[in-house]
């Protein structure tokens, strides 16, 4: 092969062989790239077909799936499966398209690099002839890849137009790859026309700007979500779950995110990601406070905020968001701890009020000693029967369906409620239970300290 190439270079009267070789190499590379692209599209079609067949509207299966999606799962570990908001669901077709574009770039660079080595080792062209040859090899395949990238971006824009903001997770890896490979691309681009270089730069800018647009849409969605539904069990709201899942996914692509945001916002990569995460958390907190206003009971409102705030802090610690945000604001964790303490105190006020009923009774109807023959007035007996019993039953009935997904928080709440109530009820019970003021004491003392402890111990279950 080398001897043949030497003969062509040294003895051929024309340089037609150069154009022929470039055309054959270009056709071969283009054929391979198209095969890669078709394979990617076929895989995407299979995924889409599976999705469509599983959710066909005229099938019973679709009705079942739709009902499943509308369930409001109290088990946070299952929330990823039962997301109620469409804009955080990944679409396999778009993922395959993104992977396909990256694979096209990678494959092309490998093949073009090999062509350069082959041309150099076989033909030993002059620098100008080698440049002309490789330029002819490069133009059509690169234009084809840029066409595929443009088609992918159009698909991503359509998804974003449907508020499927998960498209950003397909854009970020592509942007990361292009930015990371820019030096290598510049080497290849020296064989291309300025118009091709300009087209490549336009694609890169479009990928970055589309990412930023999607992120801004997400912040706006979290801040201005108008869904008026609030969980009757005061559990973590679906918006909170969605936002935190979104942030968790962003953390996986945090390096790409920093590059994209800094290129668009002209800020340092070390500050843009913490600022974005802080904006999402701030928007989420504001929206949750607005949603909490739909509760008419102040204790349920406090429990809703307690559940959500506790879950936010626990999750951002786990996935690394807190660490990143704290790089710009060290008070973030303390802020959430203070909020948790505040909402817990507000919720516990209903139990404090219950204990206050007993304190008030004993202060106003104090017996010198619980003598067996001592009598209570009718008003006092009715207060024993109605005030505490009625309020205890009211609060336990109203709070019976409350769910606290955090097992440790639920345990601490039960412990604190028992402590508040029993510290007042136990001495009250032991004192007045001995007073012989009725033939039917169970009518007045419906609850023993043990039964009260058991009743409270059954509250705040993690699942319904």
Automatic annotation (TrEMBL):
InterPro entries: Cullin_repeat-like_dom_sf, Exo70, Exo70_C. One of its GO terms (molecular function) is phosphatidylinositol-4,5-bisphosphate binding. Residues 107-456 form the Exocyst complex subunit Exo70 C-terminal domain. GO terms for cellular component: exocyst. Pfam families: Exo70_C. Gene3D superfamilies: Exocyst complex component Exo70. It comes from the Eukaryota. Keywords: Exocytosis, Protein transport, Transport. The keyword RNA-binding does not apply. Belongs to the EXO70 family. Component of the exocyst complex involved in the docking of exocytic vesicles with fusion sites on the plasma membrane. This is Exocyst complex component 7. It comes from Trichinella pseudospiralis (Parasitic roundworm).
């Amino acid at each position: 092969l080398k001897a043949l190439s030497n003969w062509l270079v040294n003895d051929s009267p024309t340089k037609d062989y150069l154009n022929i070789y470039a055309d054959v190499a270009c056709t071969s590379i283009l054929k391979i790239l198209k095969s890669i692209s078709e394979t990617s599209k076929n895989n995407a079609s299979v995924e889409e077909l599976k999705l469509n067949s599983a959710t066909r509207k005229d099938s019973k299966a679709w009705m079942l799936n739709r009902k499943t999606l509308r369930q409001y799962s109290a088990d946070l570990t299952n929330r990823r499966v039962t997301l109620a908001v469409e804009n955080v669901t990944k679409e396999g077709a778009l993922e395959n398209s993104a992977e396909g574009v990256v694979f096209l770039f990678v494959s092309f660079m490998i093949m073009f690099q090999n062509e350069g080595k082959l041309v150099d080792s076989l033909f030993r062209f002059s620098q100008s002839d080698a440049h002309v040859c490789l330029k002819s090899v490069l133009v059509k395949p690169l234009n084809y890849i840029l066409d595929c990238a443009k088609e992918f971006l159009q698909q991503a824009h359509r998804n974003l137009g449907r508020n499927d903001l998960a498209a950003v997770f397909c854009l970020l890896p592509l942007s990361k790859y292009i930015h990371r490979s820019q030096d290598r691309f510049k080497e290849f681009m020296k064989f291309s026309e300025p118009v091709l270089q300009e087209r490549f730069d336009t694609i890169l800018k479009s990928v970055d700007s589309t990412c930023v647009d999607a992120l801004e849409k997400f912040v706006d969605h979290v801040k201005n979500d108008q869904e008026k539904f609030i969980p009757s069990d005061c559990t973590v709201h679906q918006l909170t779950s969605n936002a935190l899942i979104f942030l968790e996914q962003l953390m996986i692509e945090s390096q790409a995110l920093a590059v994209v945001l800094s290129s668009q916002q002209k800020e340092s990569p070390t500050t843009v990601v913490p600022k974005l995460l802080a904006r999402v958390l701030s928007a989420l907190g504001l929206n949750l406070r607005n949603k909490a206003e739909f509760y008419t009971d102040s204790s349920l409102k406090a429990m809703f905020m307690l559940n959500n705030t506790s879950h936010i802090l626990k999750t951002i610690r786990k996935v690394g968001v807190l660490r990143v945000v704290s790089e710009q604001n060290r008070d973030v964790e303390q802020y959430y701890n203070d909020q948790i303490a505040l909402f817990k105190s507000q919720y516990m006020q209903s139990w404090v009020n219950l204990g206050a009923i007993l304190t008030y009774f004993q202060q106003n109807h104090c017996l010198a000693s619980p003598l067996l023959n001592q009598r209570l007035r009718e008003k006092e007996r009715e207060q024993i029967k109605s005030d505490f019993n009625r309020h205890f039953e009211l609060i336990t009935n109203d709070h019976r369906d409350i769910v606290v997904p955090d097992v440790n928080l639920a345990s601490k709440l039960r412990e604190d409620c028992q402590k508040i109530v029993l510290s007042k009820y136990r001495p009250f019970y032991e004192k007045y239970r001995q007073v012989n003021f009725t033939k039917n004491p169970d009518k007045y003392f419906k609850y023993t300290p043990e039964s009260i402890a058991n009743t409270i111990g059954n509250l705040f279950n993690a699942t319904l």
